[in-house]
Amino acid sequence: MPVVRKVASFGLILWLLLAPQVRSDDYLVASADRCVILLHGLFRSSLSLKPMQWYLDHAGYTTVNLSYPSLLYPIPELAEMAVTQSLRTCHSRGAHQINFVTYSFGGILVRQYASVQPIQGMQRAGMLGPPDGGSHVAFYYSSFEFLQPIESDVLVQLGKGDESILLTLGPVAFELDVIASTIPDITLLPSFPDELSDGTVSLSEARVPGVKELLTMPVTHTVMILNPEVMRHSDEVERGMHLGLVIALL
């Protein structure tokens, strides 16, 4: 529990120091009709995105930040579960313009859901460190037999093998901006691409056909969601602003 309290306290400090400037009443009313759905990554819960949620709350958005059991079901089931429940919560709060801010694996759930059915009212999505091109890290860990009873095909579907779902999703059909981190925070695994990366997701893995902009940030994968500049850029994505500092895309 001390770790939880530290994370919450750090998030509160960030919110107090980094909250967006006060907007006009008209802006806040318009933003409140925009529901920003936050989706966390593997091995995490909604707590990991609390600081980001507080930041967007203060900007005037309606936010939904729900936990989902990331390792217990295959990707299609997780997408249906997490996105459907989040959309229902948005609608129950009277918000009909749908935006997403996702972290790592959470972005894959949006792509999977949108590939099966249109998301009514969707405007745009901002994905932080998504393994859109398939994950070398997931592919590596999926080979360990002791993990197979708990990962329920997720790591295999997230990897780069024949059973990868990511390699079958195709280009995104919605407005998408990606923020990729570039400072490694773990030792690179065997066969990890020798290219710019954060040690978990390489730059080539963060790219996806159809993305509008891709911005690189000098932060680590693990704590990028707590970074002040990442929070600010996420707000800019939700408002449809140009991110700048864009790198060349495939």
UniProtKB/TrEMBL annotation:
InterPro entries, per database record: AB_hydrolase_fold
UniProt-recorded Gene Ontology molecular function terms: hydrolase activity
Keyword Hydrolase among UniProt keywords: yes
Record key words, sorted: Hydrolase
Protein known as: Alpha/beta hydrolase
Organism the protein comes from: Halioglobus japonicus
